[in-house]
Amino acid sequence: MRLKELLEKSKIEVLNFPDENPEIKNLAYNSKKVKQNTLFFAIKGTHHDGKNFIPEAVKKGACAVVVDKKLDHKIPQVIVRDV
Asked: Is 61 exposed, middle or buried (0-12, 13-18, 19+ CB in 10 A)?
């Protein structure tokens, strides 16, 4: 499923949508579980911030990320209020 189609069907309030529309085959919030064509959710936890794991996620095959603010990464970023 394409990114835009996936998010249009969800109840996620998207604040800023990327121009790119990659094929999404997997979802993950743990960078260790990322495979090719994964939408990575960069969740801020008690001890770790998922944004710090974006480079690892991209290296493993993430094709887009969900974040709460625009970041300096060259990957499509879906910006939402609360990841």
From this structure: middle
d(CA 64, CA 19): 11
Q: What is the mean pLDDT of the chain?
A: 94
pLDDT value of residue 38: 98
SS3 category, 56: helix
CA distances from 44 to 29, 41, 48, 70, 81 (A): 10, 9, 6, 15, 12
Indicate the SS3 state at residue 64: strand
pLDDT, one tens digit per residue, over 13-51 is: 888 888 899 999 999 999 999 999 999 999 999 999 999
**CA nearest to 40, candidates 27, 49, 25:** 27
- Residue 76 confidence (pLDDT) above 90: yes
* Number of Cβ atoms within 10 Å of the Cβ of 69: 10
